Amino acid sequence: MGKSTKPIVVSGIRSTGHLHLGNYLGALRNFVAMQETYQCYFFIADLHSLTTHPTPDHLQDSVRDILAEYLAAGLDIEQCALYVQSDIQETIELYLYLNMNAYLGELERCTSFKEKVRQNPNNVNAGLLTYPTLMAADILIHRADLVPVGKDQEQHLEMARTFAERFNRLYQTDLFTSPQAYQSDKPLVKIPGLDGNGKMGKSEGNAIYLADTPDQIRKKVMKAVSDIGPSTIGQPKSEPVQNLFTIMEQVSSHDTLAHFEDLYNRCEIRYGDMKKQLAEDLVTFLAPLREKIEMYRNDERYLRDVARIGAEKAHVSATETLKRVREIVGIRSLF
Ligand code: TRP
After folding, report:
1. Given this model, what pLDDT does residue 11 score?
2. How far is the CA of 127 from the centre of ligand 1 (A)?
3. Cβ-based burial of 259 (10 A; exposed 0-12, middle 13-18, buried ≥19)
4. What digits encode the pLDDT tens for the residues 85-96?
5. Ligand 1 atom at shortest distance from the alpha carbon of 144
6. What would the 3-class secondary structure string for 124-164 be?
């Protein structure tokens, strides 16, 4: 990608398991909308996924899965740079420089780190501690202006700003811009899971995956948590039931939604019927995506070309940034 005056956007998704409906509606659809307006770099964060020690085969498979899912969702390799994080080795070197000015205290205070320590006290590795520095390197290597991320990543983005500003101050340079969270004009949709509380997550076991078969979708929806039903007119919805309506709002027609709202309000709703309808609407909604995912996933040659083209594009700005960082820091080869 040559010089351009469009604001630069960077975002990544970790390669831990398939993408789900929440990823699609909450993030991917936004990425697709941004490709035209901004100079976009979207990548698969395979290095970040190493903190949990996946097997090599599993790691490889996940990268291909997510690449196919990105493409199926509508990312266009002509418009954006779509690449795999580990193909841009400049990021790894920048990560090292940034780590020299990332302090133990601030890394330890990071909410996601504390959470991981709590969940997995036997695997508190340095990669986990420096997860935010690697993420900052992903962003700063392209000197991004905007980063579309969810609420759970805002603290990491804030740390990226801290590292960028600290570097600039320390070396008296204006090399790095301060990356800001991208706010879409449409409110962000938060897709809840099927287990009654919280949002849809890869590790929560409550997700509908873009690659799920119609039968898998039906089974999951029919098992979704609801409640015993409203007993008085106008009773507010419980969280699990509201969640079903929220998903329905995304994938079903207005009429369908209004129909079940009405039944709920009259205390005549049968959740079994609602789930059946929701399952069919989800199947219809996801069918074209699933078809495309399969097509891309089975074309390993094409996936390889996509990754190569993406890496070539991402390299242009990564090489330029790293060259300047090395000069600024004073890393120069003697020969
Ligand atoms: N940490 C992000 C997540 O878990 C993924 C990520 C890695 C990322 N590097 C990034 C997101 C750079 C935005 C920009 O979702």
Report:
1. 96
2. 14
3. middle
4. 999 999 999 999
5. 14
6. CCHHHHCHHHHHHHHHHCCCCCEECCCHHHHHHHHHHHHHH
Give yes or no for residue 283 CB within 6 A of ligand 1: no
**pLDDT above 70 (res 4):** no
Q: If you write DSSP's letter for every residue of 183-211 in order, what string do you get?
A: --SSPPPPPB-SSSSSB--TTTT---BTT
pTM here is 0.91
Q: How far apart are CA 52 and CA 123, in angstroms?
A: 8
Ligand 1 centre and the CA of 182: distance in Å? Answer: 13
What's the token pair of residue 243? 């969640």
CA triplet 181, 328, 91: central angle to 5 degrees? 50
Backbone phi, then psi, for 213, in 5-degree steps?
-80, 160
Q: Which two tokens stand for residue 306?
A: 């996509």
205: left (phi over 0), alpha (psi -120 to 50) or beta: left
249-277 pLDDT per residue, tens = 999 999 999 999 999 999 999 999 999 99
Cβ atoms of 286 and 217 within 8 Å: the answer is yes
- What positions carry a catalytic annotation? 116, 199, 202
Q: Is 313 in the pocket of ligand 1 (CB under 6 A)?
A: no
Helix or strand or coil: residue 259?
helix
Residue whose entry in the numeric block shows the structure tokens 């020690």 = 53
Instruction: Return the half-sphere exposure (C-beta side, CA atoms, 13 A cut-off) of residue 25.
Output: 25
For residue 238, the CA-to-ligand 1 centroid distance in Å is 32
